[in-house]
Every structure is written in C-alpha cells, then in structure tokens.
Specification:
Layout lengths: L3 E2 L10 H8 L12 H14 L3 E5 L2 H12 L4 E6 L3 H4 L4 H6 L2 E5 L9 H7 L9 E8 L9 H14 L2 E6 L2 H8 L3 H5 L4 E5 L10 E5 L1 H13 L8 H13 L4 H17 L3 E2 L6 E5 L4 H9 L3 E2 L5 E5 L6 H14 L3
Parallel strand pairs: 1-11, 3-4, 3-5, 5-6, 6-7
Antiparallel strand pairs: 2-8, 7-8, 9-10, 10-12
Helix pairs in contact: 1-11, 2-11, 3-10, 12-14
Bound molecules: pyridoxal-5'-phosphate (PLP).
The site of pyridoxal-5'-phosphate (PLP) has 11 residues, from helix 3.
C-alpha cells in the first residue's frame, strides 16, 4: 500500500519525463548567465506571462524576498494580508533582511484585501511615516482564487496611488485553471509575479520571479547578495520547464480530487470549507493529533491542525481519495 501524503503539494516526486529532461539538460554557469536551460526557462516564462524578464531562484521565499527588496528601499513599507505567505510564513525576511516594514491587513473571507482598507492604510507623505510603496497580493490564497475584476480594481488603485503591485503566485496556475483563463490574464495586472515550480506543478525545486528588465536586474543583484546565485542550475530549471510544458493542464485533476474529497467529507458530517482549487480545509478541533495518528496507521499522512489542510497533487490519485474518505468515515465526524 503506497503512502498518501496530503500535507502539501510540495511532496511530489519528479515524473519519469521530468527526470529525463533533467538528465539531458544542457548546462553552464548561471552566475555568468551561461546556463542554456536556465536562460530558456526564464525567457519561456517571462514571454508567456507578458513580462520583459525573469529570474530563476531556488525557493518561493527567496523569490518574494527579492521582489519586495527590489520594489522597496530600507524604511519603505508594503501592504499585505495577515495570512499572506510573505508576511506570515517567510520568517519576517522582508523586515529582517530588507528593512521593509509590513503593514498587514486582515484578509477577507474570499482571500482578498478590502481595497478601501488598503487606501486607508496608505500613509501620507510626511516624515513621521514610512513610505508606502507596494501592495502584495497572493493568488491562490489558501486555495481561494481572486477574481479578475478584483485584480483589475487593485491595479487601478495602485496606479492612482503610485504603488507597485506584486503577486505571490506560488499557485498562479491553479488560479488560472480554476478561472479557465491563460495565466497571462492574471499576471498582466501586476508589476511582478513570483511562480513556484515546486508546488502543484511537481518540480523538485525552484521558483521564477518575473518583471521588467530593470526590476529583474535589481533582483539578480539581490539574489547574488543573499546567496542564491547558482551555477549549473540547468538540471533543476529543466524540471521546471518540463512542469510548465506538461503538468499545468493536469492541475484540473487535483481540483477534481479536492472537490470530491471535500464533498464526501461534508456528507460524512465533517465541517468542510468550500473547495475552489487543490486545498480542502476541515475543522477537526481538538481531535487533530488523534486523527493524524489514526490516518498514519492507514498510510495516510496528514498535518495535525484544528483547521486541517489537505492538499491534492500529482502523486495523489482519485482512487486514493476514496481511501482517505474511508479512513475519515471510520474515524467518525464525532
Ligand atoms: C510555498 C509558498 C511560498 C514559498 O515557497 P518556498 O519554495 O517553500 O520557499 C510562497 N508563497 C506561497 C503562497 C506558498 O504557498
């Protein structure tokens, strides 16, 4: 019986085709700008998303950090959601390494930030205040998709107020698949977009930051500074490019599996949040540790959280979803 790991969509193994692409990738020293596979990935993605340039980095955390530091100087401020990855889950890097002050706002139920609250949070030009320079959004946000109308409104507002607009698009392609649009339709509203290759796309490592030529030149300098200048990185870039070329459309399967799981658990009496993409949130309360241990005995790996997150991915099949439902049925909703 194989293990079913639903902790995150980061747990996937490279597919056979991906390993093959990695093994045969042409390589060079990327700090000299001479790795053909890295260069190909950067130009491929920047063109598809409608940007002038892109930068390959080892992690989404580094990608977001470089973006924040390229948009903001020391003592500047960025507006961000309380639940945003850049604010909550990146060790405070923008503040620690960039001397950038976050101005967090509560996320709305749909994952967005209330644009009236954003306007109210923008500080006046006064030497008492940090300079508000940037709005950072996330899409998908805990599995929720921001609407294209909302993105257009955020773009309009940031233009009027002279702010930059960054997207943590770790799961940009999940959002695009859910909306049924080309990812470019989402990306076009932003000055910069960070995309993770190592989440649902199934690459072992890597993210790409996209933006203008000037912005990416600045980010490239910062990447070297934080130790992210890699050498023959083409073998991992090739995995990322393979993922983008072959493993985007199949995200719809992950969404279908998550929808099935959410519906079935709801029918068993569990308190399940509405499922939009590849994440299922269930209120488990004080039985979280118990459920984790119960499922572990059945080779199902879960996190232990009162608000349990289960994430579908390319190594979790439809048949396995039925096994998970059976385990939950046995455990009982109360
Ligand atoms: C995973 C994730 C990141 C960071 O990616 P790492 O590669 O783990 O550093 C950033 N933003 C969001 C929304 C993520 O889910």
């Amino acid at each position: 019986m194989t293990v079913i790991d639903l902790r995150s969509d980061t747990v996937t193994q490279p597919t056979a085709g991906m390993r093959d692409a990695m093994a045969h990738a042409p390589l060079g020293d990327d700090v000299y700008g001479e790795d053909p596979s890295v260069n190909k990935l950067e130009s491929w993605l920047s063109q598809r998303l409608g940007f002038a340039a892109a930068l390959f980095v080892p992690t989404g955390t580094m990608s977001n950090l470089l973006a924040l530091m390229a948009h903001c100087e020391r003592g500047d401020e960025y507006i961000v959601g309380q639940q945003a990855h850049t604010y909550k889950y990146e060790g405070g890097g923008a503040a620690v390494l960039g001397s950038i002050q976050p101005q967090p706002l509560d996320n709305q139920a749909d994952g967005s930030l209330d644009l009236n609250q954003v306007v109210a949070a923008i500080k006046a030009d006064d030497f008492h205040f940090a300079r508000t320079r940037l709005l950072a959004l996330e899409n998908t946000m805990q599995g929720k998709v921001l609407s294209l109308d909302y993105l257009a409104a955020a773009r309009k507002l940031t233009r009027e107020k002279g702010l930059g607009l960054h997207l943590d698009g770790a799961r940009l392609y999940n959002a695009a698949i859910k909306l049924g649009v080309d990812a470019r339709e989402i990306a076009r509203h932003f000055d910069s977009v960070s995309v993770c290759l190592s989440k649902g796309l199934g690459a072992p490592i890597g993210s790409v930051l996209c933006g203008s030529g000037e912005f990416i030149a600045k980010a490239r300098r910062l990447r070297k500074m934080v130790g992210g200048g890699m050498r023959q990185a083409g073998s991992i870039a090739a995995a990322g490019l393979y993922a983008l070329e072959h493993q985007v459309e199949r995200l719809a399967d992950d969404h279908a599996n998550a929808a099935f799981l959410g519906k079935a658990l709801g029918e068993l009496g569990f308190d399940v949040e509405p499922v939009q993409t590849n994440m299922v949130y269930v209120q488990i309360g004080d039985r979280a540790e118990q459920l984790k241990a119960f499922c572990a005995e059945r080779k199902i790996v879960l996190s232990a959280a009162p608000r349990l997150r289960m994430v579908t991915h390319l190594d979790a099949s439809a048949a396995q979803m039925e096994q998970v439902v059976a385990a939950f049925a046995e455990f009982g909703s109360r």
